[in-house]
Amino acid sequence: MSKQYDSLVLGSGVAGLTSALKLARLGSVAVITKKSRAESSTNYAQGGIACVTSAEDSFELHVQDTLTAGAGLCKEEVVRSYVAEAPARIRELIEIGVRFSGSQHRADGATTVSGLDLGREGGHSKRRILHAKDMTGREVERALLATVERHPNITIFENATAIDLITATKIGAGGTDRCLGAYVLDNATNSVVTFTAKVTVLATGGCGKCYLYTTNPDIATGDGVALAFRAGVGVANMEFIQFHPTCLYHPLTKSFLISEALRGEGAVLVNGNGAEFASKYDPRASLAPRDIVARAIDAEMKRTGAACVFLDITRKREDFLRERFPNIFAHCESLGINIARQPIPVVPAAHYQCGGVLVNPDGATALAGLYAVGEVACTGLHGANRLASNSLLEALVLAQRSAARIERALAVTPADVAVPEWEEGSASDPDELVIVTHNWREIRQIMWDYVGIVRTDKRLARAARRLEILLKEIHEYYWNFKVTGDLLELRNLALTSWLIVQSAMQRKESRGLHYTLNYPAPLPVARDTVIDRRDG
Ligand code: FAD
Ligand code: SIN
């Protein structure tokens, strides 16, 4: 079966939905999403969106904080322009009904970005985080989905997993290579649908599931990076995986974040004896940028042999905490932890992919007709370490910019090419489930043990060797048997993990989130790590 649209958007988080809304002005849009429509990292975002709105703040300060966190690898022109565009994007969110904390008190709240309640997070020199209590992502996703659902030009396909991009080269169409759409697995019927479009936008989010412990939801399996790489598009800076310092450590919960905004309100990291330790590692202590705080926790856990550290916010009143952090308060309370009275057990966990599909500042990849927006893309905004709450901001700005560029490009789109239907293998294998679950576990354990917060050449080489064996096995399996959603995710997880390791092996220095005992200092000149299949 095949379907044709003007634009094809893969993913329904903040980047995908914002792109869909902007592209709907140009024609029909299909949004493909592999689980239910709201299931995305966006939906779990807590802290908020960084944006200069107060008189005490300035674009220059936001720029400098971003550059400092990025450890010499940010593209300064990208940082400057994204920071300056942020207020316009926030205004659009408010216009579609996003209710930021503080906004309901303003008479003209529908169109202004001043007067909102501002949070603070690590690496920010000012309070500048717009938030909806501690559920910012849920509020943004709610408002975007409601707007998308009302739009006559947009159709959402749920439980649909993009398998691979369709390119002119892959189908032997000749001429300049370009992206023609994607093959998509309908998970309900296990049939493959051919989606063709003038432009395809990758908005598939990150790859936290490559690691055993992560704050990310299950959808974050690196699909977009793998799809782009297989289509011959370069990926950059994949070694910079951000570990969030404070993921809740409790046997009855998985992947629950304790927002950095708590530290912004005075929470302090302490060890099992109740002693503050972060100031030993950096004068900014618990509010230093994430790479520093995560390494400090890692070092403290190794030094003391403890399984976790603690975040102590007991200095704040219970009514304040219940009001400002209702989601975190309730979740911890359901596990028997009253955060107003006892410290919260926390550990670092994989959180964010700073690198990704190489794009220009407008989200265009090197493959004509293919764009990448949101966490899947590497624009140069984050450099070697993302500043907290700059991710939702990047997704909003990039979606706007790519749509503007697509509007210009659609006018010159070449005539349609005949795209063949997916050729389906007929065999199914009773052993599949065990192979998928075993390899899935093994990859995530390898990445956690050998490619984590502190790396060495030896550990990376070990990870590379093991991943190559797994990649070969998964490759054979993929070509011999019918595809399933789980198998597709495993295939992408393996390739993305391998790309992280290859990038890490290329970086012979420590910078930002990439810290290796073999090269503990940064090199004098910062360079991107780019891996391009066409380079062999
Ligand atoms: P996502 O929101 O992850 O959406 C990806 C979409 O792609 C999903 O719909 C998914 O189902 C779909 N998809 C993936 N692969 C496929 C495929 N093969 N086929 C079809 N569909 C596919 N950032 C901030 O700036 N501020 C915060 O406060 C903040 N808090 C966070 C808290 C948590 C717990 C987490 C996990 C992240 C947080 N981040 C925060 C980071 C931020 O939420 C993400 O970077 C951002 O939401 C990514 O948006 P996105 O649209 O690019 O991807
Ligand atoms: C948080 O709330 O700590 C997450 C913020 C982010 O990842 O930017």
Any idea of the CATH class of the largest domain?
A: Alpha Beta
Low-confidence stretches: none
Tell me, briefly, the overall form: globular
| Helicity range | 25-40%
Strand content: 15-25%
CATH fold name of the largest domain, please?
A: FAD/NAD(P)-binding domain
Number of E strands: 18
The CATH superfamily of the largest domain bears the name FAD/NAD(P)-binding domain
Indicate the structural class: alpha/beta
- Put simply, the count of helices is 13
Bound molecules: flavin-adenine dinucleotide, succinic acid
CATH architecture term of the largest domain: 3-Layer(bba) Sandwich
Distance between the termini: 34 Å
What's the overall average pLDDT, rounded? 94
Largest sheet: 7 strands, mixed
Radius of gyration: 22 Å
What does this 3D model show about the protein?
By secondary structure, this protein is of the alpha/beta class. The protein folds into 3 domains: 2-239 and 354-410, FAD/NAD(P)-binding domain (3-Layer(bba) Sandwich); 247-348, Succinate dehydrogenase/fumarate reductase flavoprotein, catalytic domain (Flavocytochrome C3, Chain A, domain 1), CATH 3.90.700.10; 434-531, Fumarate reductase/succinate dehydrogenase flavoprotein-like, C-terminal domain (Methane Monooxygenase Hydroxylase, Chain G, domain 1, Up-down Bundle), CATH 1.20.58. Helices cover 34% and strands 16% of the residues. Strands 1, 2, 6, 7, 8, 9 and 16 form a 7-stranded mixed beta sheet that branches. The protein has a 4-stranded mixed beta sheet with strand order 17-15-10-18, covered by helices on one side. Strands 11-14-13-12 form a 4-stranded antiparallel beta sheet, covered by helices on one side. A hairpin with a 4-residue loop joins strand 8 (179-186) and strand 9 (191-202). Helix 11 runs antiparallel to helix 12 (457-480). The protein starts with a strand and ends in a 5-residue tail after the last strand. The structure holds flavin-adenine dinucleotide and succinic acid. Residues 46-47, 259-261, 388-389, 391 line the site of succinic acid.
